[in-house]
Each structure stands twice: as structure tokens, then as C-alpha cells.
Amino acid sequence: MQRIFSGIQPSGVPQLGNYLGAIRNWVNLQANYECIFCLVDMHAITVWQDPEKLREHTLTQAAILLAAGIDADKHILFNQSAVSAHARLAWIFNCVARIGWLNRMTQFKDKAGKDRENHSAGLYVYPNLMAADILAYKATHVPVGEDQKQHLELTNDIAQKFNHDYKVEFFPQVEPLIPPTAARIMSLRDGTKKMSKSDPSAQSRIELTDDADAIALKIRRAKTDSAPLPEDIVGLADRPEAKNLVSIYAALADISAEQVLKQHAGQGFGPFKAALTEIVVNAIAPIGLETTRLLQDKSYLLKTLHSGAQRAQSIAEPIVSEAEKLVGFLK
Ligand code: TYM
User: Is there a single domain that holds both residue 175 and residue 29?
Assistant: First the structure.
């Protein structure tokens, strides 16, 4: 069976973009792949995290993933820092990846902005750690949202250069699995900005723990324009906020954006937002309720993560030990 690896940063509560771009896909892929899902706490600290909050978000995310349908018995769910193989392989990859490759990473440029000199060195080498996450398991398929595509191309460059430099066929090439709709969900306050769990405005995103009232309020307040919905997607071209709400509807109803417009063309945002609220609440609110229940038993969550880390370790250890041998470390 082919192996999947994917990760999410415990830097906040997962939002609708994480769900549609990644988590929902993870749940469905469990039927056909051997899956390893990781709470990437080492990636999270590339920007400042309050230690208590990081611990809290890691546990909450574990609960959310289980509530959303991740099966931690059949598959593996763990937190990254619990398996030291990630850091060891990341160091080797720091020495394989070229500075020029990292300079091209758009996510670093977006996050660091103009104040590049004052960001952590960890943020700069973030994609090397991501390559290590995946290749420590020789995973071949990686379900992610659109924003991670460039990082996966870098992962393939690193694998190729490692194989070339050490004259081996050791690391595989990886294939991104990006959903056809909703690969990039935008902020509810600004249709040109990605929805993000670290955006300072909680109104910009729907969190997976939001209840029905919170979801309804956020959708009611979502930025829109005053024109009614158009007949076809060409009519959405210069209307990023409208396009985003239509994409969310399409992804959750499992229909195309064209079909959504067929059903709602000519409608103003009042009735469309009401229909959207219903569909979002039906998908998200049950996850929040189950998360609350799971969070009452923290020792169960800790045990689940611990068992996942042990199983992850037993896969990664021989692979990373072999990579260390290949580079010439005395064993
Ligand atoms: P993170 O925590 O930013 O996001 C987790 C997943 O959610 C997707 N995503 C989105 N999809 C659609 N619309 C959005 N607005 C949106 N926001 C986030 C992301 O594409 C991602 O799939 N670097 C990764 C974590 C990571 C990882 C890995 C992923 C670390 N190691 C190895 C895959 C394989 C990240 O920042 O995730």
C-alpha cells in the first residue's frame, strides 16, 4: 500500500481552509493508503509560540483531527518533536538544499515580508524540515492545499540531489494530492488573502470548533459586494469575496462552482449567505461538539499521540539511520 504523510501546524485552531484543503482529504484517503498525520510543533516554533498555548493547541488539534474522522488506530497520528528522526534528517537536508532554492520560496517571502533579517533561521529552513518529515518515512503521496505545492517541489529537488550526491536511489519522488476545488480558501474579510489560523482577526476565518451561532455571525459579516450572483464563473473574475463564498459552498456541497451558480444566479448575498451558513454548520458544528467531548479526556489524547509517535519512530528510525550511514556518519 502506498504511504501518505501530511502535517498541520499547531499554531492555532484549524480553520475551514485547513479542513477543505487538507483534513477532509486526509479522512477520505485513509481507505486506500497507509497514512501518517503529524502535528508539526517544530514548524510551529519557527514563529513565536507561547509554550502553554502550543501545548494546548497541540492537544486541541489532536482532538479535532480525531473528531473529523482520523482513525489513529489504523493509521498514525503524533506530534513531530516526539520523533527525533525528523530533526536529524532535517539537518542533513540543510546541507543538501542550496540557499538559492530557499531564496525562491514564496511562503518565506510572504511570512518574512520586508523585515527578513529579524525572522528566525528556522523560518528560512522550514521547507527542509518539511522534506525531512515526508522522506523520513519514504512517503510518496502528500495531501495538501495549493499553498504547499512549492514546498513539495523543493522536497523532490532535495531527494534528487541527495540521491545524486551519494550515488543511490534512496529517496522517492513525492506527489502532491491537491483537491480540485477549495485548494485555496480565502479570508472572509479580504478575498485576496489566504484564510489562516494565525490571522489576527478571528472574523476572517471559521474555526473548526466554532458553534452554529459563531459560524452564522461570521458568514453574515463576511465581506461581499452588492451585485447579485452571476450566471457563470466568468462573472466572478473580479469579485474575489463572492468567488470565495461560492467555492466554499461548492466544496462542501460536493458540486462544481458552475452548479452552485446555476442554483443561485440572480440571488443577492442575503439568501445565499443563509444557504451557505446551513451547509457550513452541517459540516463543521458536529466536529466542534465531538472535539469538546474528546478534550474532557486529556490522558486518552496523550496516550493516542504517544502510541502514534512510537509507531512513527519504528518506521522512520531505520530509514534515517540508513541516510546517516550514506552521508558517512560513524555508526
Ligand atoms: P498549515 O498548518 O499551514 O496548513 C495545514 C494544511 O492546510 C492547508 N491550508 C489550506 N488549504 C486551503 N485553503 C487555505 N486557506 C489553507 N490554509 C491552509 C495547507 O496547504 C496544509 O495542507 N507546511 C505545512 C505543514 C507541514 C507539512 C509537512 C505538510 C509540515 N510538514 C509535510 C505536508 C507534509 C503547513 O504550513 O501547514
Answer: yes
